[in-house]
Amino acid sequence: MIDIVTVKQMQEFDQMTIKTKTPSIELMNLAAKSIYEECDFSNKKIGIICGSGNNGGDGLALANILIENGFFPYVYLISKKISNDSQFYLDKLNEKKYENIFDISKCNYDFDIIVDCILGTGFRGEVKENIKDVIVRINNSSAYVISADIPSGLNGDNGLKTECVKADQTIAIQYYKTGHFLNDGKDCVGKIIAKDIGIEKTEETYKIIEDKDIVFPKRKNNSSKYSYGRSLIIGGCENFVGAVKIANMGVSSLRIGAGLNTIAAPRSIIPALQASVVESTLYPLDEIDGHIKFNKEQLDKIMLSVNAIALGMGMGNNYGENKKIISHILENYSSNVLLDADAINAFKDDIDSLCKYKKASIIITPHIKEMARISGIDEKEIISSPIESAKAVANKIGGIVLLKGASSIITNGKDVYFVVNGGPELSKGGSGDTLSGVILGLLAQGFEPIKAAYMGAFLCAKAAKDLTRDFSEYGVLASDVARNISKYIKE
């Protein structure tokens, strides 16, 4: 797992390192060295644009390193008033009698490379007009843009922006920041890498999931379908049959390794499902007006022998009946239950009711709108504080929240995991259903809930990304992901 930090954490780690180990001026030089070592400046016309803070100091330190290695960058200052550490490196340039230092008004932005050292991770709010003009000119230039630590104008915590540098490459200093991957972040950072300069963490950080965190145990030859768990999907209604989507869920559950899967749906849509469902068994449920009807005996029967349940997909807006069904399962089933779509919507503005049912372990997989519906938290607040919102809801329900977005956030209210490898290829109807099926299959096999959630999100994103080679990011379907998910177990 890879460390990812908030701006506040980074500031605390930075200050502790300065206090106990490395002076701030040396840290600035190390940050500049990391940019120099990572980027190819050979045979390029280089412009470095420096702000007034320590991000600008990184640029001035970089200019010194470039000059010492035979390059002649053009250095532009946005302000005459700069930080003390920045002044140290400006003085070094002046000691060299270096002449290519200008006010930003002299910049024509005609460079092969522009190094963006304007605003750092501490930036908040609106970009000032004079800096906004600089950012627009950078983005309109033909230069390859390298951002020091973070693209200027990007919020380091939540990835929101008004006007922001769109970098081709970002060199994150020491740790990735949460804003690199949330909201607009992934569209602004370009190719990103975190470079170690010796800043040590003083508390536990959030984590980014990577390939080596996805581990499947080797299976015994002496086993059967009953050895690997039975999953149950409850969903569908007359107005939203979603046969293919529900079938994909079943395929996903089995492809990821569950031994058996059952799909329980309203009796009237069973014929439609039969055309799409091959490996899963079907169980017809009583219905009312095309929606699943609460029937205690039926629910108790299908819960009896399964290891994990997912429900809500395509159940429709018969929320009163849906709520009875979900509540009964949560009260009487002692294993893992995944709630998505209409199972979440059934508890709109009533998260307290959901919290009453504690026998089952709960995972919810909302997108931002569903998160707002169930939690009562305003959408804008969720967007601006997605980690805090997800943790608050996870603590409230005593379960796991997988908040879907540009990057997925998975939390149990304390630990936080980021899945950042997804992309626009997942912005397609049915992707969430396939994800639920994968997580369901992992739960059925006995993976702990938080691990099943982040493994499922990572694997779906990985499969979809690889499929863009054949279908582009426009053409990947959820069914493609469902069919291809199992190949990554081999890795």
Which key phrases capture this entry?
491 residues, alpha/beta, 7-stranded parallel sheet
Layout of secondary structure:
Elements: E1 2-5, H1 7-20, H2 24-38, E2 46-50, H3 54-68, E3 74-77, H4 84-95, E4 101-103, E5 113-117, H5 129-140, E6 144-148, E7 169-173, E8 176-177, H6 185-188, E9 191-195, E10 206-208, E11 230-234, H7 243-255, E12 260-266, H8 270-274, E13 281-285, E14 287-288, E15 291-292, H9 296-303, E16 308-311, H10 319-332, E17 336-339, H11 342-345, H12 351-355, E18 361-364, H13 368-375, H14 379-384, H15 386-397, E19 400-403, E20 408-411, E21 416-419, H16 431-445, H17 449-475, H18 478-484, H19 487-490
In short:
By secondary structure, this protein is an alpha/beta fold. The chain has 19 helices and 21 strands. A 12-stranded mixed beta sheet has the order 8-1-10-21-20-19-18-17-16-11-12-13, with helices on both faces. Strands 4-3-2-5-6-7-9 form a 7-stranded parallel beta sheet, with helices on one face. The chain has a two-stranded antiparallel ribbon with strand order 14-15.
Tell me what you see in this structure.
The protein is α/β, with parallel strands linked by helices and 491 residues long. Helices cover 41% and strands 18% of the residues. It has 19 helices and 21 strands. The strands form three sheets. It has a twelve-stranded mixed sheet with strand order 8-1-10-21-20-19-18-17-16-11-12-13, sandwiched between helices. The chain has a seven-stranded parallel sheet with strand order 4-3-2-5-6-7-9, covered by helices on one side. The longest helix is centred in the last third of the chain and has 27 residues, at 449-475. The protein starts with a strand and ends with a helix.
